[in-house]
Write a structure and sequence with these properties.
Order of helices and strands: HHHHHHHEEEEEH
Structural class: alpha+beta
Strand order of the largest sheet: 1-2-3-4-5
CATH architecture: Roll
CATH superfamily: Tgt2/MlaC
Number of strands: 5
Shape: globular
Helix content: 40-55%
Distance between the termini: 21 Å
Largest sheet: 5 strands, antiparallel
CATH class: Alpha Beta
Number of domains: 1
Length: 212
């Protein structure tokens, strides 16, 4: 039940990011809590208006990931953090494979959980950060039936083209996504190295496709 709830709330997080407007349409100096507030306000509308996403259509979810999520998430940092110290020893090709397989794994988890998100609302808590901070924690609560549930984002401020606040980790019920996968990935890397981890992820993703 806890695992299912984690995936359901992570799916809500994905939907928040899916609702993100393209980088050219938002101000680079928009505060991080305002970003999350704006996105959160459109979550339920986004779910209700797109039946294919709501029902976990993998093709549609993947299209949304490539079009809207990837420009607004530091997925390289997310993958590198999940892989841990071994990331620095991986070749450019291995890093690219890890990012792709990790993305497929996460998207399939979220796609299957999107149907479970329905009547929740999201409360943004006051931001505890200084104006000069380059990394912040935006804390929220998901409210619906039962007790409020913790749902937090870590964001970093990026310079240059496409600048603005980008998500690089998320927390559901006190559990950080990156750290959860880091412990799993470390076991595979210790057993069979980076190529072994890539193989395991690839096989898991293929098995998930066969179950669809």
């Amino acid at each position: 039940m806890q695992r299912r709830l984690f995936h359901s709330l992570a799916a809500m997080l994905l939907t928040v990011v899916v609702a993100w407007t393209p980088p050219t349409a938002m101000a680079a100096d928009e505060p991080p809590d305002a970003v999350i507030q704006r996105l959160s306000n459109s979550v339920l509308e986004n779910i209700r208006s797109d039946k294919s996403v709501r029902e976990g259509d993998l093709t549609q979810v993947m299209a949304l990931v490539d079009a809207k999520i990837m420009p607004n998430v530091n997925f390289k940092r997310m993958t590198a953090s999940a892989v841990g110290p071994a990331w620095r020893q991986a070749s450019a090709e291995q890093q690219a494979r890890l990012q792709e397989e990790f993305k497929i794994l996460l998207v399939r988890i979220y796609a299957g959980a999107l149907a479970q998100v329905s009547d929740q609302t999201i409360l943004i808590k006051p931001l505890r950060a200084a104006p000069q901070d380059q990394e912040v924690l935006v804390r929220t609560e998901v409210r619906g039936r039962g007790d409020p549930i913790q749902l937090d984002y870590r964001l970093e401020k990026t310079p240059g083209e496409g600048s603005g606040w980008k998500i690089y980790n998320l927390n559901v019920l006190g559990v950080w996504l990156v750290e959860t996968y880091r412990s799993q990935f470390a076991r595979e890397i210790n057993n069979s190295g980076i190529d072994g981890l890539i193989k395991v992820l690839t096989e898991r993703n293929k098995a998930n496709i066969n179950k669809s």
